[in-house]
Amino acid sequence: MATERPAMGRWFEDLTPGMVIDHAVTRTVTEWDNTQFSVMTMNPQPLHLDQSFAETTEFGQRVVNSLYTLSLLIGLTVYETTHGTTVANLGFGEIAFPAPVFHGDSIRARTEVLSARPSSSRPTQGVVEFEHQAFNQHDDLVARCRRSALMRRRPA
Questions:
Q1: Which of 6, 24, 137, 148 has the fewest Cβ atoms within 10 Å of its own Cβ atom?
Q2: Mean pLDDT of residues grouped by 10 in the chain (156 residues)?
Q3: Backbone φ, ψ for residue 141 (5° rounding)
């Protein structure tokens, strides 16, 4: 007989519009993070991988792959929002990277619940729209995205 794993994230009922969560976990981005992610995703962009090339750009150094930044942002938010309580990501929208991330930047995340509604076809679930934001150690906004998730309702 399988036992149900306890949820660590919040249930649908716990995620009310207007709620803001400043996430506890932060992460310093390393050169290895950027290189590994770029190579694994077959992204040969020299701005991410070639220091000599990057020094000739307006940034003067390599820039962290923006899709790594997005992945990190979502990952930093999971434990306090959807860990064990999400059924599926339904979509991502309005993704923006207003400032670059560099090796050595420490990233923190904030989430706002934009909307929450019961599912019309799944009575034990609901749809929540989040806005996730990532900030560096200087409090510069470096990434922002909206995410819709199908969430479990609290068991009866």
A1: 6
A2: 61 96 96 95 93 96 97 96 93 97 98 96 95 98 98 90
A3: -70, 120
Q: Report how far residue 84's alpha carbon sits from residue 90's, in angstroms, rounded to the nearest whole number.
A: 16
Domain 12-29+65-152 has CATH 3.40.50.720: no
Tokens of residue 109, six digits: 């995340």
- Three-state secondary-structure class, residue 31: helix
Cβ count within 10 A of residue 107: 21
Q: Please state the domain extents for the chain.
A: 12-29+65-152
- CA 97 to each of CA 13, 89, 110, 133, 137: distance values in angstroms, whole numbers, following the listed order: 31, 21, 15, 10, 16
